[in-house]
Amino acid sequence: MTTPRGADAPLAPLTRPRRLRSxxxxxxxxxxxxxxxxxxxxxxxxxxxxxxxPVVAPHVLAAHxxxxxxxxxxEGRARDLQExxxxxxxxxxxxxxxxxxxQRMVELLDWAAIRAxxxxxxxxxxxxxxxxxxxxxxxxxxxxxxxxxxxxxxxxDPATQEHLRATLFEPESVRTVTGSGTARTLVPGRARGVxxxxxxxxxxxxxxxxxxxxxxxxxxxxxxxxGEEPYRLDRILTQLLRAGTLDGVTGVLLGSxxxxxxxxxxxxxxxxxxxxxxVPVVEEFGFGHCASTLTLPLGVRAVLDADARTLxxxxxxxx
Length: 319
Description:
Structural class: alpha/beta
Radius of gyration: 18 Å
Shape: globular
Distance between the termini: 14 Å
Helix content: 25-40%
């Protein structure tokens, strides 16, 4: 199913790709920032240990000729993603890292061809939020908000690796996701909805683009970020509130806020900006830019139990 785009239509579950199996080919792409070669090699070794065959896209280690924060040109990064997705022998497309740059290539992708190629696993977070939203709204495909192949969290944290591996290969084993040890209830209650969201600054940056949601009605909203001071997060959340993105949201799941200031200030901000609608809200659930991160599906129906600090999927993240 595709996401209804009318202002009054609630979010609907999206099409889930199949789970991975031993021997599958998985493509690694870099839609945003440049990749250190040693970190890429370490990530590929982990994937091989899971029994899959990683295929590195041609521009993953490329550098933009003038903008050193980009992994090659927009055209090259877009071509890598396009070719990986449309390759019938590739079962999954995994992002190597975030940074910045995904927004610059969204319009360079042939979304009709991507839809025609059918569902595949797509994994990433941070700047990749721009692509999660594009996949949801342009193709009707569910994706995974999860760790990236060359990110230090993935390379160094066994729990991060295992939760992604289980989601990819044994998704029924992680249908109920329990928040981190620091997770706490901001607003109690239970809520059912379709998961969406990601990096909050990228959601705000998408307003006014073809991938801006008219409303979050019927959705469980996932939010996290890194390196944003409290007043900037206030501005971002206020922008989303004014734009109607949070209208009709059934619950909110807050992830990590690394380098975003003292948490008591963030707690006060979230209570001020997110408690008003009266929907269940959980803080510090344990996804995003944190030392140990969970993999969460986007575009699936789930139940948020704010008191138990759990997210239970109606069906496994992958088919």
